[in-house]
Write a structure and sequence with these properties.
Distance between the termini: 137 Å
Order of helices and strands: HHHH
Structural class: mainly alpha
Largest sheet: none
Number of strands: 0
Shape: elongated
Helix content: 55-70%
Radius of gyration: 41 Å
Protein backbone atom coordinates (compact mmCIF):
# COMPACT_ATOMS: atom_id res chain seq x y z
CA UNK A 1 0.00 0.00 0.00
CA UNK A 2 1.17 3.43 -0.86
CA UNK A 3 1.46 5.78 2.00
CA UNK A 4 0.01 8.73 0.12
CA UNK A 5 -3.10 6.80 -0.88
CA UNK A 6 -4.18 5.94 2.66
CA UNK A 7 -5.47 8.78 4.83
CA UNK A 8 -4.13 8.93 8.37
CA UNK A 9 -7.42 10.08 9.82
CA UNK A 10 -10.65 10.68 8.06
CA UNK A 11 -13.29 12.89 9.46
CA UNK A 12 -17.04 12.63 9.04
CA UNK A 13 -16.79 13.59 5.37
CA UNK A 14 -13.76 11.45 4.60
CA UNK A 15 -11.41 14.42 4.19
CA UNK A 16 -7.75 14.24 5.14
CA UNK A 17 -6.83 16.38 8.12
CA UNK A 18 -4.07 18.99 7.85
CA UNK A 19 -2.03 17.13 10.52
CA UNK A 20 -1.44 14.31 8.06
CA UNK A 21 -0.21 16.72 5.41
CA UNK A 22 2.27 18.25 7.87
CA UNK A 23 3.54 14.79 8.87
CA UNK A 24 3.90 13.82 5.21
CA UNK A 25 5.94 16.96 4.46
CA UNK A 26 8.16 16.41 7.48
CA UNK A 27 8.74 12.79 6.39
CA UNK A 28 9.65 13.86 2.86
CA UNK A 29 12.11 16.46 4.15
CA UNK A 30 13.69 13.88 6.48
CA UNK A 31 14.05 11.30 3.70
CA UNK A 32 15.14 13.62 0.90
CA UNK A 33 17.18 15.99 3.02
CA UNK A 34 17.46 19.73 2.76
CA UNK A 35 17.71 21.23 -0.72
CA UNK A 36 21.30 21.44 -1.86
CA UNK A 37 22.82 23.71 -4.44
CA UNK A 38 26.08 23.49 -6.35
CA UNK A 39 27.04 27.12 -5.60
CA UNK A 40 29.84 27.60 -3.06
CA UNK A 41 28.82 28.94 0.32
CA UNK A 42 30.08 32.46 0.93
CA UNK A 43 29.95 34.44 4.13
CA UNK A 44 29.76 38.17 4.63
CA UNK A 45 31.17 39.85 7.72
CA UNK A 46 29.69 43.21 8.65
CA UNK A 47 31.67 45.24 11.13
CA UNK A 48 29.46 47.44 13.25
CA UNK A 49 31.39 49.95 15.28
CA UNK A 50 30.01 50.05 18.77
CA UNK A 51 29.81 53.31 20.65
CA UNK A 52 32.90 53.56 22.78
CA UNK A 53 32.05 54.93 26.18
CA UNK A 54 34.40 57.81 26.87
CA UNK A 55 34.06 59.14 30.41
CA UNK A 56 34.29 62.93 30.37
CA UNK A 57 34.64 63.33 34.18
CA UNK A 58 32.38 66.40 34.13
CA UNK A 59 30.76 65.72 37.50
CA UNK A 60 34.14 65.20 39.17
CA UNK A 61 35.42 68.40 37.55
CA UNK A 62 32.38 70.32 38.73
CA UNK A 63 32.92 69.02 42.27
CA UNK A 64 36.58 70.08 42.18
CA UNK A 65 35.62 73.47 40.75
CA UNK A 66 33.12 74.16 43.54
CA UNK A 67 34.87 72.62 46.56
CA UNK A 68 38.60 72.14 45.87
CA UNK A 69 39.58 74.78 43.36
CA UNK A 70 43.29 74.90 44.25
CA UNK A 71 45.22 77.01 41.76
CA UNK A 72 42.10 76.93 39.53
CA UNK A 73 42.84 73.29 38.63
CA UNK A 74 39.20 72.35 39.13
CA UNK A 75 38.07 75.04 36.71
CA UNK A 76 40.64 74.00 34.07
CA UNK A 77 39.60 70.35 34.51
CA UNK A 78 35.97 71.41 34.03
CA UNK A 79 36.91 73.18 30.79
CA UNK A 80 38.67 70.05 29.49
CA UNK A 81 35.69 67.92 30.51
CA UNK A 82 33.36 70.14 28.49
CA UNK A 83 35.75 69.92 25.54
CA UNK A 84 35.77 66.13 25.88
CA UNK A 85 31.97 66.04 25.86
CA UNK A 86 31.88 68.28 22.78
CA UNK A 87 34.34 66.04 20.92
CA UNK A 88 32.26 62.98 21.86
CA UNK A 89 29.09 64.60 20.51
CA UNK A 90 30.81 65.41 17.22
CA UNK A 91 32.05 61.82 16.92
CA UNK A 92 35.77 62.44 17.46
CA UNK A 93 36.47 59.60 19.88
CA UNK A 94 40.25 60.10 19.86
CA UNK A 95 39.95 63.80 20.69
CA UNK A 96 37.37 63.04 23.37
CA UNK A 97 39.69 60.49 24.97
CA UNK A 98 42.59 62.95 24.89
CA UNK A 99 40.61 65.74 26.56
CA UNK A 100 39.12 63.26 29.06
CA UNK A 101 42.59 62.02 29.98
CA UNK A 102 43.79 65.58 30.59
CA UNK A 103 40.68 66.34 32.65
CA UNK A 104 41.25 63.19 34.72
CA UNK A 105 44.89 64.16 35.44
CA UNK A 106 43.86 67.69 36.40
CA UNK A 107 41.09 66.35 38.64
CA UNK A 108 43.53 64.02 40.39
CA UNK A 109 45.98 66.90 40.93
CA UNK A 110 43.20 69.19 42.20
CA UNK A 111 41.92 66.49 44.55
CA UNK A 112 45.36 65.67 45.95
CA UNK A 113 46.29 69.33 46.40
CA UNK A 114 42.92 70.09 47.97
CA UNK A 115 43.21 67.21 50.43
CA UNK A 116 46.80 68.15 51.28
CA UNK A 117 45.80 71.74 51.94
CA UNK A 118 42.90 70.60 54.13
CA UNK A 119 45.19 68.27 56.10
CA UNK A 120 47.81 71.01 56.50
CA UNK A 121 45.11 73.44 57.62
CA UNK A 122 43.84 70.94 60.20
CA UNK A 123 47.39 70.40 61.48
CA UNK A 124 48.07 74.15 61.73
CA UNK A 125 44.79 74.85 63.50
CA UNK A 126 45.21 71.97 65.93
CA UNK A 127 48.85 72.76 66.78
CA UNK A 128 48.07 76.47 66.96
CA UNK A 129 45.21 75.88 69.36
CA UNK A 130 47.41 73.59 71.46
CA UNK A 131 50.11 76.26 71.59
CA UNK A 132 47.55 78.88 72.60
CA UNK A 133 46.20 76.60 75.36
CA UNK A 134 49.73 75.92 76.59
CA UNK A 135 50.57 79.65 76.60
CA UNK A 136 47.35 80.43 78.49
CA UNK A 137 48.02 77.74 81.09
CA UNK A 138 51.56 79.10 81.64
CA UNK A 139 50.19 82.64 81.91
CA UNK A 140 47.64 81.56 84.50
CA UNK A 141 50.28 79.67 86.48
CA UNK A 142 52.73 82.60 86.41
CA UNK A 143 50.16 85.24 87.41
CA UNK A 144 48.24 82.96 89.72
CA UNK A 145 51.34 82.12 91.81
CA UNK A 146 52.17 85.79 92.71
Amino acid sequence: MNRTSQPFFTGAHGAVTPAYEVLKEEHEVAVLGAPQSQAPVTTTVISIRSETAVPDHIVWSLFNTIFMNCCCLGFVAFAYSVKSRDRKMVGDITGAQSYASTAKCLNICALVLGLLLIIILIIIVSTGSLMILQALSELIQNHGGH
